[in-house]
Specification:
Blueprint lengths: L2 E3 L13 E7 L8 E5 L1 E3 L12 E5 L4 E10 L5 E9 L1 E3 L2 E3 L8 H5 E3 L3 E4 L4 E9 L7 E12 L9 E14 L9 E10 L5 E9 L5 E2 L1 E8 L2 E7 L5 E2 L4 E7 L7 E11 L2 E11 L15 H33 L1
Parallel strand pairs: 5-14
Antiparallel strand pairs: 1-4, 2-14, 3-6, 6-12, 7-11, 7-13, 8-9, 10-12, 13-14, 15-16, 16-21, 17-20, 18-19, 18-22, 22-23
């Protein structure tokens, strides 16, 4: 398979780790700092933003591929780094990794040709990764992560340990023939209050393809001659085939009140879709009615009784006045 060696920063892609986990017990001392990034991607995926930060591929059973990742010591001390692969899954629209070194089927197919290394401050070095798919592997997409990990030395008391690890996601589809399609549709745009002072525009995305999606994208707003944005997707959503997820975009800018035209451009890898709609700013907070210590229906019941009593008393008062007036004319 033809490969291309890629410097992510030169391509305008962030070199930040695709997966980051920090595990610690009690309060650690100074955190050990390491980073990891892709060096090799298939030449056919050079234009795919996901392939520039993750291992994303489709392989036939019995195929073996080689990739390289680069690890860097960004701390001020020499670090001993361990390398291994671990399990991953997609749960509740999130790429999820367990603690520790739990494995799965795909992580068992991955071999890192360097188990440990020491890096001086600022030093960086490549690590070769081999993925070997068994001949009898079943069809389907699998998920894993490749980890670089630093474990701090245990203190004299033996009760402080720090584990710092950074990793790269692996999305591997296995099956005969060509790669399954990637596609999705955007089913609606809406606005709601955010957690801070700015509103959030949401988009429901349904995965209509056969590969997992990692949603990115931007949102632009227009009101007459005023334009705002683009605002970037603020939540990392991974959506499995046949499932739906909510993409959230924070409008982190004070905007005039009124109706705005919305244009969303969402993507997963090289697949891009657009949607338009309207929102009204400011976004009103939802109104809720509850009864302390009792069910909400009790509020409406008591309110109805109170209204009935008021109507009855008002009618009784009017009748009394009418009778009084007749009696006075006699």
């Amino acid at each position: 398979m033809l490969l291309a060696s890629v410097a992510l920063v030169a391509l305008g892609v962030s070199a930040a780790p695709a997966v980051a986990v920090r595990e610690q017990r009690q309060d650690p001392a100074e955190e050990a700092a390491i980073s990891i990034r892709m060096l090799d991607i298939p030449a056919s995926r050079v234009q795919d933003p996901r392939a520039q930060v993750y291992i994303v591929d489709h392989l036939k059973p019995g195929t073996t591929i080689d990739r390289r990742v680069e690890v860097q010591n960004t701390s001020g001390e020499t670090q001993k780094i361990e390398f291994y692969s671990g399990a991953a899954s997609v749960e509740n629209n999130a790429f999820t990794v367990p603690e520790g070194r739990t494995g799965n089927e795909l992580s068992g197919w991955i071999r890192l040709k360097t188990a440990t290394m020491e890096l001086d401050p600022g030093e960086r070095r490549p690590v070769e990764v081999e993925v070997a798919v068994p001949r009898k592997a079943s069809k389907g997409e699998r998920y894993a992560a490749i980890w670089a990990q630093v474990t701090s030395a245990t203190g004299r008391t033996g009760n402080v340990t720090q584990i710092h690890r950074v990793g790269i996601r692996v999305y591997l589809d296995v099956g005969p023939g060509g790669e399954p399609p990637t596609d999705f549709r955007i089913e609606g745009l809406a606005a709601e209050p955010g957690t801070g002072e700015f509103p959030v525009v949401t988009a429901k995305v349904t995965n209509t393809g056969e590969r997992a999606l990692d949603m990115t994208g931007t949102l632009s707003l227009t009101k007459a001659a005023v334009q705002a944005g683009p605002f970037k997707v603020t939540n990392g959503v991974t959506i499995l085939p046949g499932q739906s997820g909510q993409v959230r975009i924070e409008v982190d800018q004070a905007l005039p009140a009124g109706a705005w035209d919305v244009h969303a451009k969402l993507a997963s890898g090289t697949v891009e879709r657009t949607a338009t709609g309207k929102i009204v700013l400011p976004v009103a907070a939802p109104m809720t009615v509850t009864a302390s210590g009792g069910p909400s229906w009790l509020v409406y019941t008591l309110g109805g009784i109170a209204l009935l009593v008021l109507v009855t008393l008002g009618g009784w008062y009017l009748v009394r006045r009418a009778v009084g007036a007749v009696a006075g004319r006699r």
